[in-house]
Amino acid sequence: MNLLADYLYTICTSEHIHKLGVKYKSMEFNDKLQQLRKQKNLTQEELAEALYVSRTAISKWESGRGYPSIDSLKAISKLFSVSVDELLSGEELISIAEMENKEKAKSFSDMVFGILDCTMAMLFFLPLFGQQGDDMIYMVPLIALTDVPAYIRIPYLVLVSLTVVFGITILAFQNFQNRLWMKSKLLISLMLSILNVLIFISGGQPYVSVFVFCLLIIKGVLLIKQR
After folding, report:
1. pLDDT at 6
2. Tens of pLDDT, residues 121-148
3. Structure confidence at residue 161 (pLDDT)
4. How far is CA 34 from the centre of its chain?
5. Listed residue (83, 80, 71, 88) closest to 35, CA to CA
6. Would you list the DSSP string of 117-139?
């Protein structure tokens, strides 16, 4: 009788564990994370500290509004002694990998746009501007362009300076997560390049126009690839 009772208990326990395992696997990631955290008696703040992320990130993951990065997933797996496959399905892992690739491509585009805008500072020192002399046209940098009307020279200086400053801003705030900034920064950079091309063409500066147009083409190609 004892042997039969032990056998039946083992079967029931095994079925219970199996059901729990099936239930756990069918759970969404946010529910799994919340359950694992509570099993370890951790608050969201404590878990955030252990994973080196913000408490907002933990809240976002547990509410189902996003997924952690691959590195964070590995940290979660190590902390709770579970495999990444147990945390996420194959489709979810593929989705996260694709999302990370898009983020990396976007980050690369931001960096290139910032560098290209900063490259406009070269116009202050490269002799690309045509300036009429006594009997010929001299090539001078923007800072030496003096024999032109102020209503032409000042817009040149303002627009080039504004473009350079905006490029520095893009590089400095590359990881700034404000939604409006993330959506508008590349568009503003593109519009500045278009304005630069138009103003230099209208001012009869062919070499500068070609230089700025090349930068504009690079930006356009990057935007097309990003989409």
Report:
1. 53
2. 999 999 999 988 777 888 999 999 988 8
3. 97
4. 27
5. 80
6. HHHGGGGGTS--EEEE-SSSEEE
DSSP string, 8-61: HHHHHHHHHHHHHHHHHHHS-HHHHHHHHHHHTT--HHHHHHHHTS-HHHHHHH
**Rounded-to-integer distance, Cα 36 and Cα 43, Å:** 11
| pLDDT of the residue at 23 | 46
Per DSSP, the chain holds a count of helices (H) and strands (E) of: 10, 2
Structural domains for the chain: 2-88 (1.10.260.40), 102-226 (no CATH)
The residue type of 126 is L
pLDDT at 209 over 50: yes
In whole angstroms, what is the distance from residue 148 CA to residue 197 CA? 18
Dihedral of the alpha carbons of 176, 181, 187, 192, in degrees to the nearest 10:
-90
- Please report the sign of the dihedral spanned by the C-alpha atoms of residue 86, residue 89, residue 94, residue 96: negative
User: What are 195's two structure tokens?
Assistant: 């304005």
- The first and second tokens of residue 148, run together, are 């032109």
**Alpha carbon 108 to its chain's center:** 8
pLDDT band at 114 (very low <50, low <70, confident <90, very high): very high
Residues 219 and 211: their CA atoms lie apart, in Å, by 13
The answer, as to whether pTM is greater than 0.85, is no
Answer whether 122's CB lies under 8 Å from 196's CB. no
